Amino acid sequence: MKKKFLTHFLYLHTALGRSGNGMLFALLVGVLAVNIWTLKVSWDKRLAEAGDEAMNLSVSLSRQAEDTFMQVEFTLKDVMHEIEQSHDGNISTPEMRDFLRERQKRLLQLNGIFIYDEKGRWLAASSEKLPANANNADREYFIYHRDNENQDIRIGHVIRSRSSEDLVIPVSLRRYDRSGNFAGVVLATVRVDYFRKFYNFFELEDRDALALILADTTVLYARPFPDSVINQSLAQSPLFRTVLKHADSGGRSWHSPLDGIERIYGYARLHRFPLVVTAGYDKATLWQKWLTDHLLSLALNTALLATVLGMGVAILRQARVQKHNQHEISRMQGELTHVNQTLHALALLDEMTGLASRKQFDIFLEEALRRSRSSGRPVSVVIAGIDGFRYYNDTLGHEAGNKCLRQVGKALRDMPLSTTDLVAHYGGDRFAFVLPNTSSIYAFEIAMRAVSAVRHCHLPDVVDAPGHTVTISAGCSTRNAANSDMDAAMLIHQAESALLDAKRKGKNQASQK
Ligand SMILES: Nc1nc2c(ncn2[C@@H]2O[C@H](COP(=O)(O)OP(=O)(O)OP(=O)(O)O)[C@@H](O)[C@H]2O)c(=O)[nH]1
């Protein structure tokens, strides 16, 4: 049912419909393929651009991080130098505090600078006052330096400052005494807010991400995440599992383990410090923006395609209507031809007697004369009339007269004649023969046979004339070589004249002119 409807709707039952639909389908597939391909190329290009942008951003962020920590490193080294310069070994002096404060103020990223002895006690700090009995021996960086003879700068996990309550990144150096033993730690704390502010300068979408990460996979700061992600491990991130193992910088997409969102990331490992920075563009946001940019062209293309398809269907429909109309016209023409033929045939037959009509007689006679002229062979005409038919008609009535006409007509039709001869009802009580290739002698014989045929039918005549039967009289004329100038009218006139002769001579006989 559905298939039938579809076949009819799409005109698939016609050759025109099939080829039209084939063309429309090919057009649809072609336009769709080109559009999809163009859009795919455009989306791939956008992704590649986003990858490049993320990579560039991560490289600049890595420069910024390197500069930030390098300045801190130099400051720490300055502090070490200053400590070495103190003659009596006393660090807890106002001069040292001023020195530390002055150095701290130089760098925006610095939260504070601190000097601890080998027990973790505060010796000096850039802050206004030293907390009483303060001890940092429990801090992770302190324990590290106490237990490791490493002279390099160390960047630790984020901690909350005991002096300012801020989230800070501890950057520390091991102190040595003159004998080379552990003498404590010099610490500079870098504000996490410094990175927060810096990363906020960039015009990014809500779900785009920037992160500063320790090389041991610990998050130091990451936007747009809450501070709860700070110090989380990214060991499960593709960044540490695979990506960084292949290259120190580059671009790739992966799902962040912090929120599961897929981003196009750029990443860069710092050369001088064990840090990694990443910049990631949210793929879904990129897709939405790209879609919005292409929505207009997409809508226009769709509208164009729909218009073309609509026009195609309309043309197909129009062609189908035209074909239907043509079919109707030819069917009607056929019907008209049939009707015409019927009408023509009816006009050529006499309705009452079933003999040829007067019209057919005229046509047939003209044709016989034409052939006679070209062949030189004779053609004859016999005209017969019922004797005393007016009286018959007047006495027995018109209906009886009609019956008599039919009976006489039948008698004449039943006469054995040549297939080329024609018997017609000439009109009124008259009958006529056209006899091609018939000489005057033979025409006269046929006229007499006609008279005889009617007589032998014994059709009863008028009631008050017993023993009388219906008779006819006949007159004939012939065109032959001797009177070759005769036309149809002359032949008929002569035959009628002969008929009158026969009537005058007493009826029931034939006469010839
Ligand atoms: N029933 C009938 N009568 C017809 C028809 N056509 C003509 N007639 C009649 O035929 C008669 C012809 O009369 P006439 O021409 O005088 O011929 P007639 O009476 O036979 O006279 P003669 O020719 O001298 O024998 C008229 O009365 C017509 O009304 C017809 O179709 N049916």
- % residues in beta strands: 15-25%
- What structural category do the secondary elements indicate? alpha+beta
Give the integer mean of the pLDDT values. Answer: 91
CATH classification, class level of the largest domain: Alpha Beta
The tally of structural domains comes to: 2
The helix/strand series, from N terminus to C terminus, equals HHHEEHEEEEHEEHEEEHHEHHEEHEHE
- The CATH superfamily of the largest domain bears the name PAS domain
Helical content band: 40-55%
* Cα-to-Cα separation, first versus last residue: 81 Å
Total number of helices = 12
For the record, the CATH architecture of the largest domain stands as 2-Layer Sandwich
Main beta-sheet annotation: 6 strands, antiparallel
- Name the hetero compounds present: guanosine-5'-triphosphate
Over all CA atoms, what is the radius of gyration? 63 Å
Assign the CATH topology of the largest domain: Beta-Lactamase
Summarize the structure.
The protein has 513 residues and is α+β, with helices and mostly antiparallel strands.
How does this model look, in words?
- One of its GO terms (cellular component) is plasma membrane.
- It comes from Duffyella gerundensis.
- Residues 377-513 form the GGDEF domain.
- The chain crosses the membrane at residues 20-39, 295-316.
- It is an enzyme of class 2 (transferase).
- With 513 residues, this protein is an alpha+beta fold.
- The protein has two domains: 8-345, Beta-Lactamase (2-Layer Sandwich), CATH 3.30.450; 358-512, Alpha-Beta Plaits.
- It is 50% helix and 20% strand.
- The chain has twelve helices and 16 strands.
- The strands form three sheets. Strands 1, 2, 3, 4, 5 and 6 form a six-stranded antiparallel sheet that branches. The protein has a five-stranded antiparallel sheet with strand order 8-7-11-10-9. A five-stranded mixed sheet has the order 13-14-12-15-16, sandwiched between helices.
- The protein is rod-shaped.
- It starts with a helix and ends with a strand.
- The mean pLDDT is 91.
- The structure holds guanosine-5'-triphosphate.
- Guanosine-5'-triphosphate binds next to strand 12, helix 9 and helix 10.
